[in-house]
Write a structure and sequence with these properties.
With 598 residues, the protein is mostly helical. It folds into 2 domains: 415 residues, no CATH class; 131 residues, no CATH class. Helices cover 58% and strands 6% of the residues. It is built from 24 helices and 7 strands. The protein has a 5-stranded mixed sheet. A two-stranded antiparallel ribbon has the order 1-2. Helix 6 runs antiparallel to helix 15. The protein is globular, with a radius of gyration of 26 Å. The protein starts with a helix and ends in a 12-residue tail after the last strand.
Length: 598
């Protein structure tokens, strides 16, 4: 086989990979038009639409995304697409920084090849959407912040330079965003960076001060804009944490914990296959034998063709979240690391390897920083940041690239990373969070809060009935409303109501009624009395009417039922059956319970 044939094979493998990446990104953007969850996504939308409404919270993500929300006119589809682009874009910048900081000869990796490989790996960030909650959220901002910090620690250096200063400043920007999204992750990142910088020999007081000052300045500006002072933000978050603890959700667990990795039998097989495939793909592509290299290209080519077949509907396997464990993404760096040990075994204790190990360990720990503070299993939640597991092996893999003088060993790793993330998102789209059917089957164009979404028949009927009922009852956008169903914040967003007390008065927990009462107590009395109600009689997550009675209002005497609706099947918590909901309008207030002004 001559060099021309090898060049052709290189070109074909790269073009297939590039097309697959473009197809995956386009598929994500197009699918953003479909489906909606009536619980979490309503909370995100209510928070982003009017973050200044709520004086107590445990996160400030709504303030960060609010300008984007306004810029996009509140369109849910555009907001989701912007979130996808931001997630992918930041990941691409991080992957490009990783290769920029560890340069190889231009003939070993031309610029256009670098672009395709980094884009392919950046699509690994789509593992974040393994629940298919694509609306911007505190979790999404947390991942984006972690990605920004990751790019910063790669670019930061001990010696002052333009790139190094940008890196140190980037660490500060990412750290500030992490605090606004999830303070526990910001704390974990601070510790991780503080350990990594000296270990990597990058510590410089003046350079480190750039990060600290950048983060401090951004947080100061944010606190002034949000609460008028840093003290105001402190009390907001402290009160929010107290309220969260009072909910009794069972999420108050030890922050530092090691949990069972846990793989189902089928997932164990998948993990073994992933490890072996990565190992073989890297070793074959690192060969100097032309025929062996072509054989190695079968791995990324097969991945690309597999993804294209799923995206274009040429094959529709029944892959659901319960059947696919995205933790198998860890098999990719494991297989690649073993391949590196085999291929550079004579240099394993060299200074070049030791210097890069610190970065590899730091990147490997970033998913832990991402999940730090969550109540769920750390391993299960870490898959949302699984890109960093794969990225952790890249500094070592680049030593192989330098040794063989070719980019080829990187391609199987990048494409396998993309495939696992794509399968996680694909599985989620086949069984979307708290929705009844695969998103691809949604065909009903439905107006949800002024945005056109494609929903299934049941959800479309539900939202259309809500819109008609609110219109015929004289409800106007901006009118305050209290959701006593405990699980329908999206309904309030749909009709343009102003949720008061909380963006989502969540029910079903031991302290739900108490937290709801405290939240409503923070609302001006006149606004509370003017609020309409959404209730679900006998609902498993309903807030008790005694919460309203506490403020002197009686459900039977002070409100009139203006209409009833039946929820869609499998909406809300735990795949519930259709339930009856009512919208209540306050009657004429003749004897206000509000204290008179003197």
């Amino acid at each position: 086989m001559n060099s021309k044939n090898r060049s052709t094979a290189d070109f074909v493998a790269l073009i297939l990979s590039g097309l697959a990446t473009l197809a995956v990104v386009a598929w994500m953007l197009l699918l953003a038009r479909r489906g909606i969850d009536i619980t979490d996504e309503g909370f995100y939308l209510n928070w982003i639409a009017a973050p200044g409404t709520y004086p107590v919270s445990v996160t400030l993500f709504g303030f960060v995304y609010h300008p984007i929300y306004r810029l996009l006119g509140g369109d849910i589809v555009l907001l989701r697409q912007a979130n996808i682009v931001l997630t992918f874009g930041f990941a691409w910048v991080f992957c490009a920084a990783l290769l920029f900081r560890h340069p190889v000869r231009p003939d070993a990796m031309p610029a256009w090849v670098r672009t395709i490989i980094t884009a392919a790996m950046a699509a690994g960030s789509f593992s974040f959407f393994y629940y298919w909650l694509v609306t911007p959220s505190y979790n999404g901002l947390t991942l984006q912040a972690v990605t920004i910090v990751a790019a910063g620690i790669v670019l930061a250096d001990r010696q002052p330079s333009r790139v190094s200063v940008v890196g140190w400043a980037t660490i500060g920007i990412g750290g500030a965003l992490a605090f606004l999204a999830k303070p526990s992750t910001a704390a974990a990142l601070a510790v991780l960076v503080a350990l990594y910088i000296p270990a990597a020999g990058k510590f410089n007081v003046r350079m480190a001060s750039v990060s600290v000052l950048t983060a401090a300045l951004l947080l100061l500006i944010a606190s002034l804009l949000i609460d008028g002072s840093p003290q105001g933000t402190y009390w907001r978050l402290k009160a929010g944490l107290t309220s969260f603890d009072a909910l009794g959700s069972g999420q108050a667990q030890t922050l530092f914990r090691w949990e069972k990795f846990g793989l189902a039998p089928k997932a164990k097989i998948g993990f073994a296959i992933g490890t072996l495939t990565t190992f073989v793909g890297v070793c074959l592509c690192a060969s100097r034998n032309r025929a062996v290299i072509i054989l190695g290209f079968l791995v990324p080519a097969a991945v690309a063709l597999f993804e294209l077949a799923l995206i274009f509907g040429l094959w529709l396997p029944n892959i659901r979240p319960a059947d696919f464990d995205a933790k198998i993404m860890l098999s990719i760096p494991l297989g690649a690391a073993v391949a590196c040990l085999v291929l550079i075994r004579g240099e394993i204790f060299s200074k070049a390897v030791v210097r890069r190990l610190a970065l590899s360990i730091a990147l490997l720990m970033l998913p832990y920083a991402f999940v730090f503070g969550t109540a769920d299993n750390y391993w299960s939640r870490s898959v949302a940041a699984g890109l960093f597991w794969v990225a952790s092996v890249v500094p070592l893999l680049l030593l192989v690239v330098e040794r063989v003088g070719s980019w080829r060993p990187l391609l199987p790793v990048a494409m396998l990373c993309q495939m696992v993330a794509f399968l996680a998102a694909y599985a989620a789209s086949e069984a979307p969070y708290r929705q009844p059917q695969p998103l691809r089957l949604n065909t009903q164009v439905t107006n949800v809060g002024g945005s056109k979404l494609l929903l299934d028949d049941g959800f479309a009927r539900y939202f259309n009935e809500i819109a008609k009922l609110s219109e015929h009852s004289g409800f106007t956008a901006g009118t305050p409303m209290i959701d006593l169903t405990g699980h329908s914040p999206t309904v309030l967003y749909t009709i343009g109501a102003k949720p008061i007390g909380e963006a989502w008065i969540i029910g079903g927990y031991p302290g739900s009624d108490r937290v709801a009462e405290e939240a409503l107590a923070r609302v001006p009395c006149t606004e509370r009395e003017a609020a309409w109600l959404l209730v679900e009689p006998g609902g498993s997550h309903s807030i008790s009417p005694t919460v309203i009675h506490h403020f002197g209002m009686n459900l039977d005497l002070d409100y009139e039922v203006v209409g009833e609706i039946t929820t869609a099947a499998d909406s809300g918590f735990f795949g519930q059956k259709p339930r009856l909901q009512r919208i209540l309008k306050p009657t004429e207030v003749t004897n206000s319970h509000c204290p008179s002004k003197r």
